[in-house]
């Protein structure tokens, strides 16, 4: 089984950002150069989608995502309206959908996400699902913090997480801003 994938790269204030899309929509966003993003995606796709076949023509959703990410980085966009493709376990998908409910400028703890999902003791499982999010920024895993409000666990690095939260006005942490 194989899947056709389009890949585009843009620049952000935090370094290169890669956006990958299938015919269904955007399936991967990562702070990385295109070669590294393609390699990481190939491992992910092998489990969930099949072997990627790279296409030359950029998918319109990938191009639109880069445009919307530029607007986000410029402080002109708070939400994204591109088709998203999420492949993972049922639990991972539940976590990722819960992340998409965290408003711009707010943070939520891993513990709170577990509670909202009806599994208050599944904090570690929530953390693992957050860490496997294939759509950086679009599925805002950067808005998840430790129970004490500390910055923890961002696959793209804590400095990027801090920068994103500062951009959104959610850092330094204002306890009243928690969603």
From TrEMBL:
GO terms for cellular component: cytoplasm. This is Methylated-DNA--protein-cysteine methyltransferase. Its main location: cytoplasm. Belongs to the MGMT family. Gene3D superfamilies: Methylated DNA-protein cysteine methyltransferase domain, Winged helix-like DNA-binding domain superfamily/Winged helix DNA-binding domain. Transmembrane segments: none annotated. This enzyme catalyzes only one turnover and therefore is not strictly catalytic. According to one definition, an enzyme is a biocatalyst that acts repeatedly and over many reaction cycles. GO terms for biological process: DNA alkylation repair; methylation. Pfam families: DNA_binding_1, Methyltransf_1N. It comes from the Bacteria. Involved in the cellular defense against the biological effects of O6-methylguanine (O6-MeG) and O4-methylthymine (O4-MeT) in DNA. Repairs the methylated nucleobase in DNA by stoichiometrically transferring the methyl group to a cysteine residue in the enzyme. This is a suicide reaction: the enzyme is irreversibly inactivated. The active site is at 141 (nucleophile). The keyword Nucleotidyltransferase does not apply. Keywords: Cytoplasm, DNA damage, DNA repair, Methyltransferase, Transferase. Residues 11-84 form the Methylguanine DNA methyltransferase ribonuclease-like domain. Its EC number is 2.1.1.63. Coiled coil: none annotated. GO terms for molecular function: methylated-DNA-[protein]-cysteine S-methyltransferase activity. NCBIfam families: ogt. CDD domains: ATase. Signal peptide: none annotated. HAMAP family: OGT (MF_00772). It is found in: Cytoplasm. Residues 90-169 form the Methylated-DNA-[protein]-cysteine S-methyltransferase DNA binding domain.
């Amino acid at each position: 089984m194989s899947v056709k994938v389009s890949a585009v790269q843009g620049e952000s204030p935090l370094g290169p950002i890669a956006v990958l899309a299938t015919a269904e929509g955007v399936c991967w966003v990562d702070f990385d150069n295109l070669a590294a993003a393609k390699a990481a995606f190939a491992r992910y796709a092998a489990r969930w989608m099949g072997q990627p076949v790279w296409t030359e023509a950029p998918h319109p959703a990938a191009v639109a995502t880069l445009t919307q990410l530029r607007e986000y980085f410029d402080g002109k966009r708070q939400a994204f309206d591109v088709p998203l493709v999420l492949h993972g376990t049922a639990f991972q998908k539940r976590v990722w959908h819960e992340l998409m409910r965290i408003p711009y400028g707010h943070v939520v703890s891993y513990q709170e996400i577990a509670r909202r999902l009806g599994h208050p003791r599944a904090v570690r499982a929530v953390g693992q699902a957050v860490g496997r999010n294939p759509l950086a920024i679009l599925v805002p895993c950067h808005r998840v913090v430790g129970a004490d409000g500390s910055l923890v666990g961002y696959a793209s690095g804590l400095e990027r997480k801090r920068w994103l939260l500062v951009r959104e006005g959610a850092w330094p942490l204002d306890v009243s801003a928690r969603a």
